[in-house]
Amino acid sequence: MAVRQMSGLALAAGLVLGAGLVFGSVAAQNAAPPAGATARILPVTANLREAPATGPHAVVIEHDQTLATHTIYRPATLGASKHPVLVWGEGGCAKDGLQFPEYLNEIASHGVVVIADGPPVARTAPGGGAAPGAGGGAPGPRAGGGAPPAGARAGGGGGAGRGNMTDGSALIQALDWIAKEGNDPASRFYQKVETNRVAAMGMSCGGLMSYGASADPRIATVGIWNSGLIQPDEKIFAGLHSSVIIITGGESDIAYANGKRDFETMPAKIPVFYGVYPSVGHGGTYNQDNGGPFGVAAVAWLRWQLMNDTSAKGKGYFVGSGCGICGDSKWQIASRSLQ
Fold it and tell me: What count of other Cβ atoms lies within 10 Å of the Cβ of residue 314?
């Protein structure tokens, strides 16, 4: 398979501006708090597609004013056993916690507490470009995930990517917050969350944020979705101590070559799964019903890595003679050091 090499400048512009693809309106607003609700925790309503989430948990989306910079997707009823945690970075490094509601809602329905970077503003389309009807923001690359025109500025999209895109501090902030909540007897999360083995994941520029957070000893797995290092970074790779999943679209994905290079050059000791879904570009399948095929892969990975699920819905989806993704002709896959 031929690999299209993308210059660092062009990829940086693409990761910040995002896919610029329109998947349908994803309008959202703060719902009126129910009687007795405190002003601290504001429920959020997202317009999701018709298909219900596949997990056993009803999901609530919240904007907690003690973490006003983020959006929380969580099981409506927190059970007796501790729930796994995912900290998520947005496409374009956008501060928009409602950029991927289908995908994150599906993950939360399987018992995961998801903390997405950005308040619930719904300003951006998948990848970080302006959402339909949203004002402001620079235009993204043309549909299909190609690079922006020559000379395009690496900025816009309301993100933080104008500086260091591998800055994972927003994800660490979320992790520190949920760890504190888990130890606070007054919190709804008290003794309800597992904060010593957490997933850090993100899409496009958010994937680079996940790399930036990966050295934290609490990170148990890293997800690089439609992303890859702009240039090889030995410091990032040296800090990796957990498993990694890298998922991209096909060659039209602006990050395809970079994700492939990360897989090929990542230290051999790191357990890594690499998947390419050739029929999509940089925008992935996140805003299909329940996140589409990317949602299926994310749930299975988290069930394996954070919940120790060795069934066909977890580990068995990725490894073994009958692994689910191995038999799906829509995927191209490779892996290394997975056990």
Answer: 19
Distance of CA 90 to the CA centre of its chain: 6
In angstroms, what CA-CA distances link 35 with 61, 108, 288?
Answer: 17, 25, 34
Tally the residues of the chain: 339
Q: Give dist(CA 61, CA 295) in Å, integer.
A: 18
Question: Among 117, 122, 144, 138, which Cα is nearest to 21's?
Answer: 144
Q: How far is CA 41 from CA 61, 102, 187, 195, 323, in A?
A: 10, 21, 11, 21, 41
The CA distance from 331 to 199, in Å, is 23
**Is residue 11 within a helix (H) or strand (E), and if so which, with residue range?**
helix 8-17
Helix 169-182 to helix 205-213 angle (10° resolution) is 60
Answer yes or no: are the C-beta atoms of 206 and 223 closer than 8 Å.
Answer: no
Find where tokens 């929380």 sit: 72
Place of tokens 């066909």: 312
pTM beyond 0.85, yes or no? no
Query: Is 70 exceeded by the pLDDT of residue 28?
Result: no
Q: What is the pLDDT of residue 31?
A: 39
Label the pairing between strands 243-249 and 28-30: unpaired
Closest CA to 228 of 199, 200, 254: 254
The sheet with strand 332-336 has its strands ordered as 28-30, 41-46, 59-64, 70-75, 113-117, 85-89, 198-203, 219-225, 243-249, 272-277, 332-336
Largest CA distance in the chain: 59
| Strand-pair partners of 63 | 42
